[in-house]
Amino acid sequence: VSYLDYNATAPIRPEAAAAVIEAMQSVGNASSIHQPGRRAAHRVDLARRQLAALLNCSPGEIIFTSGATEANNLALRSTYIPGRPLVTSPVEHPAVLETARMVTVERPEDLVLLPVGSDGLVDLNAVEQVFATRSGGVVSLMRANNETGVLTDLRVVAKAAREVGALVHTDATQIVGRLPVDVAELDVDLLSLSAHKFGGPQGVGALYVRRGTPLPPRSLLVGGEQERGLRAGTLNVAGIVGMGAAADVVRRDLSEEAKRITALRDRLERLLTCALPNCRINGRRDQRLPGVTSITFPGVPADAVLAAMPDVAASEGSACASGAPTPSHVLLAMGLSREDADSTIRFSLGYVTTDAEIEHAAQAVARAVTQVRSALADGSR
Ligand code: PMP
Q1: Interface predicted TM-score (ipTM)
Q2: Is the CB of 68 under 6 A from ligand 1?
Q3: What span, in angstroms and rounded, lies between the C-alpha atoms of 124 and 222?
Q4: What phi and psi, each to the nearest 5 degrees, are found at residue 162?
């Protein structure tokens, strides 16, 4: 099987798996003061430093969570202030978009969705327009889109937000471990990530909170005082340790890996556009994550293509949306028709992807698309 669904989840890194197993075999609650507890706390401290090194922040600025969904919820629920704007975009992951809708349900005028172009870029000038008449609040824009890989230049956003006292949050789930992420350079106040997208285990993630950012405790979970009162609940020591180990590995060869994966992605696009000349690549091609491509095969339903190539693991839009009968909200926001959105497949590559897999996948996709297309033509004859 060619596994080309890294944006849904990446294979666990061997170093992370080993760290998880080792941590799981030791008893200890990181909040306990006896020796086993302190040993667990030490493991968590190391992971916090490893993750902080990947993001260029200090370890005390990291709050461990159960993943990016929780980090996004925590970020928005603790920064939105009724009466102040919550600025986001229609191409965000549901963990941001639905949370934003929910917290503003009684004041829908607070929710501002910035316009998105057909290339998937959010219109950043619109941020300045919003802040020409309103101030404070929070801006939440993803650094990299999970369906198209399109990147957002957050520095422009941060500058405009800073001038009016608004906080900036970014969902960086798809970029952490794939391209360098430096919170100081991005100039954001809050950043969400999830371990399983970069080779850590599933069910663990983090929210970076810039020192000095005022977050009220208990805005999401009510309970113990873990994570400075911002995230109650016994720490997932094994998960956190696995995430730390993965962070440590990716930090070492990030740029080399990104180059290799970009070349593989470009090769897949070349092979497919050659074999199927009317397919279309979605999103701004020169401003994307290394390993992602979203391709529309006009008139050919993606679910039929995926079913016709069981040995290629790719996805329709995003994994979170598939299974649901609605077409991708991201592609619709970029102006694709419903039919084109339903005829789009996302391929996402990563650190284990090989040349041979790309070769094989390109052939399988071309065959499957041709087969489905001629079956449809036969059916309508
Ligand atoms: N944000 C983005 C951009 C994502 O791609 C995902 C995972 N699909 C999430 C948030 C949620 O991550 P998790 O399911 O690990 O909580």
Answers
A1: 0.99
A2: yes
A3: 36
A4: -55, -40
Nearest atom in ligand 1 to the alpha carbon of residue 8 is 8
Read out DSSP for 100-151? HHHHTTT-GGGEEEPPB-TTS-B-THHHHHHHHH--SSEEE--SB-TTT-BB
**Can you give the pTM of this predicted structure?**
0.97
pLDDT of residue 318: 56
Q: Confirm if 300 and 273 have CB atoms less than 8 A apart.
A: no
Looking at the chain, the whole-number percentage of residues with pLDDT higher than 90 is 96
So what's the pLDDT on residue 321?
54
Ligand 1 centroid to residue 70 C-alpha, Å: 9
DSSP H stretches of helix in 66-106: 68-79, 94-103
What are the residue ranges spanned by the domains of the chain? 2-9+253-380, 14-252
Report the pLDDT averaged over residues 139-157.
97
CATH superfamily of 2-9+253-380: Aspartate Aminotransferase, domain 1 (3.90.1150.10)
Distance 97 CA to ligand 1 centre (A): 12
Q: To which residue do tokens 């229609």 refer?
A: 90
Instruction: State the pLDDT at residue 319.
Output: 53
CATH of segment(s) 14-252: 3.40.640.10
The vertex-131 CA angle with 125 and 137, nearest 5°, equals 120
The mean pLDDT value for 114-118 works out to 98
Pick left, alpha or beta for residue 293 (phi over 0 → left; psi -120 to 50 → alpha; otherwise beta): beta
Q: Residue 37: count other Cβ atoms within 10 Å of its Cβ.
A: 15
